[in-house]
Amino acid sequence: MKTKIIFAAAISWMIGANAVQAQASDCATKASIAYEHAKVKNYEAAEKPLMEIRKECPTHSLATYQYLIKVLEAKYKKAATDTEKLGIANELINVWKERYQYFPAKTESGDLHSEIGQIMYDNKIGSKEEEYEEFLIGWKEDKDHFNNPKSVYTFFSLLVDLQAEGKKDIQEVFSLYDEVIEKIEKEENEKAKVVSELTEKEESGVALSSKEKKNLSRYGKILTNYSKVKGGVNQKLGELADCKNLIPLYQGQFESKKSDVSWLKGAAGRMSAKECTDDPLFFKLVEALNTAEPSAKTTYYLGLLAMKDKSTSKALEYFNKSAELETKASDKAKVYFKIAELIRKQGSYGKAKGYYNKALNYKPSMGVAYLRIAAMMAASANNCGTDVFSKRAVYWLAENYANKAGKVDPGLAKTASATAANYRAKAPSKTDIFNNPEKKSVTIGCWIGETVRVPSL
Q1: pTM for the full model?
Q2: Residue at 36 is within a domain
Q3: pLDDT, tens digit, for every residue of 103-123?
Q4: Domain for residue 406, yes or no?
């Protein structure tokens, strides 16, 4: 009897094992077909087998969900009605959730929740509060992978709308604004550093590899998108952060908050950013903050106050000290730029260039620093060349700097392009180049100290 039972159990196990193997084999076959269709963007043919794999063997491969998301996104774009779009949107949300369910280690929280939040927002799924909360989860859990520029803007925009409806506090808006701008600038700096390096390589006459060309193009597009988002975020914040609103808001809070270091930093920082430094309240904030916690920021603010009193040497002393103390790269760049501006206005171009370059080292996306250097070079053309050709060659160098400004900061693209065209018109003509065939490059003297390649005819 026992032998029969054991034999029956063995047969049952074998049948089950064979069934599992058969299903796995069937899934592998379907996956191979579906993935090949998806790779060549034949999404209509890929959809049915992908859906079957998703249902029958959800843990087969992460690729099932990656391709299925692309299939549904393409289908969404072709949808003719809002009802059809809503159905696809809900399916997309489900696929994202299933991806996280079965492949949590390969699904970033910031990516997951920002994507779902954007789908909800675009299709009016849930209330504003629910849409905002979805974004907030991804932002809090995994800001590093919350990388879609559109989603960054939507997230902030929702909070501003909720504040306008009386559902969120204005301080929450200011806090998120600071975080969003920091995030945007971090992304900009990473991409701008690569763009700057590849641009310099290209300008030197070295041909870029196909991969480098793709990166230059791709990162340029990302920088353009983030530039638009930054402009949109600032526009969305609008009058909420103007001096006429900030000053009465902080005046009303000052007495109860004057020992709150975090509040003092935020208030002083925002008034500084919005150039509300002429108001006596700014002095009170700086004084209180410097007493509570002397730092790079308070030293910088003291420099601003020294500028207000027209004490340039004292201001430079404070700013240099602030730059030494500052640990945050973007803020250190801001201080170095301020120093460069003061020195440039004093006519010390070489020294100013050094500080602009320091600013760029810490914030590669600071295109305005390139424009300033270009302007100083153009202004020095007659002084830094040894003959007519070399004097006019300075404008090629200025043009290069202007072009770079637009590449690392697309928000300056139009200004940079127009500026570069102006300098190009003043540089040696094709006739000049033809008449000086021996000149392959020109070394510019005085404070500039750089060599510029002569363009090929």
Answers
A1: 0.81
A2: yes
A3: 999 999 999 999 999 999 999
A4: yes
